[in-house]
Amino acid sequence: MTGTTLDDYTDRYARRVRGMTASEIRALFAVASRPEVVSLAGGAPYIAALPLDAVGEMLGRLASEHGTSTLQYGIGQGTLDLRERICEVMSLSGIDVGCGASPEDVVVTVGGQQALDLVARLFLDPGDVVLAEGPTYVGALGVFQAAQAQVVHVPMDADGLVPEALEQAIAEVARSGRRAKFLYTIPTFQNPAGVTLTEERRERVLDICERAGLLVIEDDPYGQLSFDGEAPAPLRSRRRDGVFYLSTFSKTFAPGLRVGWILAPHAVREKLVIASEAQILCPSAYAQAAVTTYLSSMPWREQLKTYREVYRERRDALLAALTDYMPAGTTWTEPQGGLFVWATLPEGLDSKAMMPRAIAARVAYVPGTGFYADGTGTGNMRLNFSFPPPERIREGVRRLASVMEQETAMRQVFGSLGATSGRRRGQAGADAPGPDLA
Ligand code: PMP
């Protein structure tokens, strides 16, 4: 096949591949990771906060002393040892035996991302509708797009997903003769919005989904990263049926190990294992042993506290810098945990159009459009605070604010030439209500 170009393959692609394009985040990583750029893009945990020497020693011993099992194939569902530890971790947030959580119903996955992909493989036919918060996790959008499903966004406000908007979206989908299979939600410290679904709304959202016969996919990578008291208990701790709980060790330990899990309703668990075996045979025995050993013999609860403290300080630095530097008309969310702040720009500024100038000014963020399936979000950006240290965050926001001021000045001089497509935040299509995330 020498001499072929990418275009020669175009008419051979499967239909599901045709809409695949690089996410905004992916395209940005190359430039954003240059050392002179303050990157508020990405979502990397601050791995330097781990006791790396001790972790390294543990990893070495796993190979030298236990290599005959840790470097061998394993079983598709994941090791029982790890599934038991996962149940211990979930019980910290209220998902315990009382609500039917058992190692038998846990499936270990390659990060939270494979968990999402498995759920999509199990439930989505081309043309099915997925309801998801608007904005939502970019990696979930990629999975749903690959499954040829259609995402209908449901707006949020500062209290998370708006229950009335969910009811409205369910009714609209039904009226159009389509079938919504599930609600995909990140109720706690949402990526990218940083908001959390309130206690009261959790019950309402569950009731609405139950009445509509909608499954709930609860994605919870951030629930244990709370800064100001405990997060509300997960949806899964309130209902045992109809809720799939997905999580990962990527944010509480290390994403490099790629270990996540699904707690599935018992009836479905076997199908998930079969689907996972078809995809990956089994999750890495070595990575599973690393997480199991970490959870059984290292001070992981202390580490969680360390992560929380580091991120709380950085969240505070970001919020203070936004208050000090952002031009009038900018608003932002105030997360109580997780890794992200969602900012809404003054009327007329376009975060995507502004990106090259921001990079030239040595600051990076993710334009809001990456988090919607429909091109909405030009008036928004996601800002990450977990990775850069506080003083870099402050400098990044200072640079960003000056880029925004220049953009605004240019708009005033050149009118619409300086700027924007005119699409505003939260317009999920032409007629849906916009989120008020501020
Ligand atoms: N879900 C959400 C909401 C996420 O933010 C992420 C990671 N950024 C994932 C899933 C995927 O997690 P992992 O890195 O464990 O695959």
Automatic annotation (TrEMBL):
Named cofactor requirement(s): pyridoxal 5'-phosphate
Gene3D superfamilies linked: Aspartate Aminotransferase, domain 1 (3.90.1150.10), Type I PLP-dependent aspartate aminotransferase-like (Major domain) (3.40.640.10)
Keyword field contains Amino-acid biosynthesis: no
Disordered: annotated segments: 416-438
Name of this chain's protein: GntR family transcriptional regulator
Stored InterPro entries: Aminotransferase_I/II_large, Class-I_PLP-dep_aminotransf, PyrdxlP-dep_Trfase, PyrdxlP-dep_Trfase_major, PyrdxlP-dep_Trfase_small
Taxonomic lineage from the root: Bacteria, Bacillati, Actinomycetota, Actinomycetes, Micromonosporales
Keyword annotations of the record: Aminotransferase, Pyridoxal phosphate, Transferase
Species this protein is from: Phytohabitans aurantiacus
Residue intervals of the Aminotransferase class I/classII large domain: 61-400
